[in-house]
Task: inverse folding
């Protein structure tokens, strides 16, 4: 049976790796992006050369109107969409003392509101399927230097459990919480290597560790409301 997946923020990094892994498993791809349209179009070409369909959907997930239009647009082209991966995210430093209402609103809009309302629309439009939320192992602790980001991911973990309870049996909802995987503007690879030396598994993770956790959840029809920490044990500290 034909299956398609919507991956938000799918043009680069972990999102791109998820796209390629799902294509290998025969999924058509609804590829969401915001600024990375050129990379998304290039990736769509690779998906098509691999024999699957791919559509690029560009929108800013901090805009509630754009969020409400995304699933109907995807459903028009991919009525067989059965997997939503809420991967897009804003990762920004900022303490509670420095937090402005507009920064709080923007980070929560992308990292929490968008997954909430995309999940709701996904369940309404496709009636059955699976949602995977990309959380963060830092949400298991109180990572106060990135206050709004960590709060958004803590709430996303709780949303995963509550929406799994609310949307079964037709829709499963799970989460993957990566640890130290890819460098960011703030943390270079050498920082991740240094920080990961103190983890129970003593090393940083790879993108493939995150991808395999998503695929495990997708493959297990009796698993819902779960979070897999793909983090070398970071959440235990
Ligand atoms: N990388 C890690 O080590 C790590 C660790 C822990 C958790 N995670 C989680 O894993 C997921 C993927 O990580 P990543 O590092 O690959 O993510 P990322 O590169 O930081 O962000 C993924 C995509 O989110 C999209 N995005 C950001 N703001 C947006 C907005 N306003 N509207 C629409 N899209 C927006 C961007 O798309 P465009 O480029 O198209 O604008 C970006 O490419 C995230 O949820 C992240 O929190 C990652």
Result:
């Amino acid at each position: 049976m034909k299956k398609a997946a919507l991956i938000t923020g799918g043009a680069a990094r972990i999102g791109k790796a998820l796209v390629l892994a799902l294509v290998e498993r025969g999924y058509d791809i609804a590829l969401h992006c915001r600024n990375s349209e050129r990379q998304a179009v290039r990736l769509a070409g690779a998906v098509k050369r691999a024999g699957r369909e791919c559509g690029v959907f560009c929108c800013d997930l901090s805009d509630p109107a754009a969020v409400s239009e995304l699933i109907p647009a995807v459903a028009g082209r991919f009525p067989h969409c059965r997997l939503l991966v809420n991967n897009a995210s804003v990762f920004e430093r900022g303490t509670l003392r420095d937090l402005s209402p507009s920064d709080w609103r923007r980070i929560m809009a992308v990292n929490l509101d968008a997954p909430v309302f995309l999940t709701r629309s996904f369940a309404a439009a496709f009636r059955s399927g699976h949602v995977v939320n990309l959380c963060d192992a830092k949400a298991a602790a109180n990572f106060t230097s990135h206050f709004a980001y960590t709060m958004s991911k803590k709430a996303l973990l709780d949303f995963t459990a509550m929406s799994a309870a609310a949307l079964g049996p037709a829709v499963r909802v799970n989460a993957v919480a990566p640890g130290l995987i890819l460098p960011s503007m703030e943390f270079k690879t050498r920082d991740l290597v240094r920080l990961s030396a103190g983890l129970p598994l003593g090393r940083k993770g790879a993108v493939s560790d995150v991808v395999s956790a998503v695929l495990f959840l997708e493959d297990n029809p009796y698993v819902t409301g779960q979070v897999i920490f793909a983090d070398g044990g970071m959440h235990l500290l």
